[in-house]
Write a structure and sequence with these properties.
Blueprint: H1 3-7, E1 21-25, H2 31-43, H3 54-73, E2 91-96, H4 103-118, E3 122-127, E4 137-143, E5 148-154, H5 173-187, H6 196-210, H7 213-227, E6 233-236, H8 237-240, H9 244-255, H10 257-274, E7 289-290, E8 293-302, E9 309-316, E10 319-323, E11 329-332, H11 341-352, E12 355-359, H12 361-372, E13 375-378, H13 380-397, E14 405-410, H14 422-437, H15 455-469, H16 477-491, H17 496-519, H18 531-547
Parallel strand pairs: 2-3, 2-13, 3-6, 13-14
Antiparallel strand pairs: 1-14, 4-5, 7-8, 8-9, 8-12, 9-10, 10-11
Helix pairs in contact: 3-9, 4-18, 5-6, 6-7, 9-11, 10-13, 12-13, 14-17, 15-16
C-alpha cells in the first residue's frame, strides 16, 4: 500500500456543541512546532517543475503576495507594522469567500492574527473570489422567544448562476443600502443592538468605493477587525492568480494534465469511498473527458462574459489547445518534457487580454499551501476536504504536504433556550410508533396483570396473538399481514387516551425543539450578534481557550 493510500482515512470533524467554545486541531500550543516543521520542509523542497524548483517558485510567489496584499489592504485601512524583514518571515494564511458568515468562521481571522503575532509571521486572509455567489440574503431570527420565526432578508438580488465574486457588482442598490435597517428591525425584539449598526454603514461606503459586492462585505469586516486590534492583511485570491509563479505552476499542471487527471479522479473517488459519500458531486465532481479533451481543474471566463466555465485541454502538435467548449480557445506551448518560459509568457498575454484563469477548489488550497504559506488555517469544511488535497500533493508531486490547522468555534445569540433533550423526542417518537404497531401493550390490565379487563379488547388481543404465532407461508402471508393491521386499528379506540396524551406531549416538545433550533443556532451571520458579545468572545475568551 502506498503512503498516500495510508494517509486517507475517515476523520470526523464537528463544530463544538457548547456555546462559546472553540475547536482547534492540533492544539494551539503545538502550532508553532507545526509551523517550524513546515518551514523546514518547504525550504528543502528541490522538486523541479520544469525549469524552476518548487522552493524557488514559492519564494517569488510570496514576494508578490506580500506586495499585493499590502497595496490592496491600504486601499481601505492603515495596516499595523509588519514583522522585521517581512519577506523572509513565516507566512500564515487563512481564507474564505467574501461573504457574510457566522462567528465560527470569523474566529479564524482572529486566530490568524494571534498566531502571527506569537511567531513573528505575516498574516494574510485570502478572499476566495473565484467561487460563485450563492447567497444574497441573510437568515434573520424574528418574532419573540416564545414564537420565533426565521426570515430571509435580502441585501441584493441573485445574479445569474456561476457568477464569481470577482465579477459580482452590487445590482440592487436600494436593497443593499436598506439591508442594515431592515435586518435590525426584524431581529430587534430578540437582539435590540447588533453589530449591524456599525458594520452596515461601512459596507455601504465600501460598496460605493468598489462597486463589488464581495469587497464591500469583506473590507468593512476587515476594518472592524483592525479596530479591535487584529493585525492581518487581506487579498482577493484573483490577485494571486497572476504573475510568473502562478503561470509557471499552471503551465506545469496543464503540461502534465493526463497524469494530474488520473491522480485527481482516483483521489476523489477514494475520498468518497472512505467517507461514505454517495453523491458524485461531492466533495467535487470527477474531471470529465470529452473525446480527446480532458477537463482541467480550473475555471475560465472573461470580463465581457463573467460566468465561470470549465477548462478543457488536449494535445495539439508540440503543445496544447485550451478551450471552454463554448467558443473560446487558445494555444499553449507546453508539454511534459520541456521548459515553460514561452507558456508563461502566453498565459500572461491571455490575462492581459482579459482572460480569467482561476484555480478550482482543491487547487486553490493546493496553491496556497505549496507556494503561498508556511501554515494554512482551515475551518471544518476546508479541513475535511484538504485531506483530499493532501492526496493530490502526495500523488502528483511525490511530496509530503505541509500540515495545516483547523480552527472553528460556536457562538450563539444571547437568548434563553427551552431545554429539549434529543433522547426525550426520540423516546416519544418510539412510543407513538409502538402505539401503532403494538397497541395491546398500552391496554389497561386487571388486578392480576393478566390482560385487558375489557372483553372486547381481550378478544382482539387474542386474535392478534394467534395470527402472530401462526407461521407465515405462501398461502397466508398476505392475509396474516392484513389481519394484524386490521386488529391494530380495531384496538386503537381502547388506547385513544394514551394516543392523545403522547401526541400532546410530542407536539409540545416538538414546538420547544423548534424554538431551541431557531434561537440556539450557531449559523447566524456575525453582524446579527451584539457587538460586545462578539468582541469579548473573539478578542478575549477565544484566545484564553486557545492558550488553555
Amino acid at each position: 500500500m502506498s503512503l498516500a493510500s495510508e494517509m486517507l482515512h475517515y476523520r470526523r470533524l464537528a463544530a463544538p456543541r457548547q456555546d462559546r467554545s472553540v475547536l482547534v486541531q492540533p492544539p494551539f500550543g503545538e502550532l508553532g512546532s507545526l509551523l517550524a516543521g513546515n518551514i523546514a520542509r518547504g525550504k528543502s523542497s528541490a522538486i523541479d517543475l520544469q525549469g524552476r524548483t518548487l522552493a524557488d517558485l514559492a519564494s517569488a510567489a510570496r514576494k508578490l503576495l506580500l506586495s499585493d496584499a499590502q497595496d490592496y489592504t491600504r486601499q481601505y485601512l492603515d495596516p499595523a507594522p509588519l514583522p522585521a524583514d517581512a519577506a523572509s518571515a513565516p507566512f500564515i494564511l487563512a481564507g474564505h469567500q467574501p461573504q457574510l458568515f457566522h462567528p465560527g468562521v470569523w474566529c479564524k481571522n482572529f486566530a490568524l492574527s494571534l498566531l502571527a503575532q506569537r511567531h513573528q509571521a505575516v498574516a494574510i486572509n485570502l478572499l476566495v473570489d473565484s467561487d460563485a455567489v450563492k447567497k444574497t440574503s441573510s437568515r434573520v431570527p424574528s418574532g419573540n422567544i416564545v414564537q420565533p420565526a426565521l426570515l430571509d432578508v435580502p441585501f441584493d438580488v441573485m445574479p445569474e448562476a456561476n457568477t464569481p465574486y470577482e465579477e459580482r457588482k452590487i445590482l440592487d442598490w436600494p436593497t443593499f443600502e436598506t439591508f442594515g435597517s431592515r435586518a435590525a428591525a426584524e431581529i430587534a425584539p430578540l437582539i435590540p443592538d447588533t453589530l449591524l449598526n456599525s458594520y452596515w454603514p461601512r459596507a455601504i461606503a465600501r460598496g460605493r468605493a468598489t462597486g463589488n459586492l464581495g469587497l464591500a462585505l469583506a473590507q468593512s469586516r476587515h476594518q472592524i477587525e483592525r479596530e479591535w486590534g487584529m493585525n492581518t492583511l487581506e487579498l482577493p485570491q484573483s490577485h494571486c492568480c497572476q504573475g510568473v509563479p502562478y503561470y509557471h505552476f499552471v503551465a506545469h499542471l496543464l503540461a502534465n494534465l493526463p497524469r494530474l487527471w488520473d491522480v485527481y479522479n482516483a483521489s476523489v473517488r477514494e475520498f468518497r469511498h472512505v467517507n461514505r459519500i454517495r453523491s458524485a458531486a461531492h466533495p467535487v465532481p470527477d474531471l470529465a473527458i470529452e473525446g480527446d479533451w480532458l477537463e482541467a481543474p480550473f475555471w475560465v471566463w472573461s470580463g465581457a462574459n463573467p460566468r465561470r466555465r470549465r477548462l478543457f485541454v488536449r494535445a495539439a502538435g508540440e503543445g496544447l489547445e485550451l478551450t471552454d467548449r463554448h467558443g473560446w480557445s487558445a494555444a499553449l506551448s507546453a508539454h511534459a518534457d520541456g521548459e515553460l518560459a514561452v507558456a508563461v509568457e502566453q498565459l500572461d498575454l491571455l490575462a492581459r487580454g482579459g482572460l480569467r484563469l482561476r484555480t478550482r477548489a482543491l487547487l486553490t488550497t493546493m496553491y496556497a499551501r505549496l507556494l503561498l504559506s508556511d501554515l494554512f488555517i482551515h475551518g471544518i469544511g476546508g479541513s475535511k476536504y484538504d485531506e483530499l488535497t493532501d492526496q493530490l500533493i502526495h500523488r502528483f508531486f511525490d511530496l509530503e504536504p505541509a500540515g495545516y490547522a483547523t480552527i472553528s468555534a460556536t457562538l450563539k445569540l444571547p437568548l434563553p433556550l427551552p431545554t429539549v433533550e434529543a433522547e426525550s423526542l426520540s423516546q416519544l417518537d418510539h412510543e407513538i410508533r409502538e402505539l401503532d404497531y403494538h397497541p395491546e401493550t398500552y391496554l389497561p390490565f386487571d388486578e392480576n396483570g393478566r390482560g385487558s379487563a375489557d372483553a372486547g379488547a381481550s378478544s382482539l388481543v387474542e386474535q392478534k396473538r394467534r395470527w402472530i404465532t401462526t407461521p407465515p407461508g405462501p398461502d397466508n402471508v398476505r392475509q396474516r399481514y392484513l389481519e394484524i393491521r386490521r386488529l391494530n386499528a380495531a384496538l386503537r379506540p381502547w388506547v385513544a387516551p394514551v394516543a392523545e396524551e403522547l401526541t400532546r406531549r410530542r407536539t409540545q416538545l416538538g414546538s420547544a425543539a423548534r424554538v431551541a433550533a431557531i434561537l440556539g443556532s450557531r449559523e447566524y451571520d456575525f453582524c446579527l450578534f451584539p457587538t460586545s458579545l462578539l468582541r469579548d468572545f473573539l478578542c478575549r475568551d477565544m484566545p484564553a481557550q486557545l492558550d488553555a
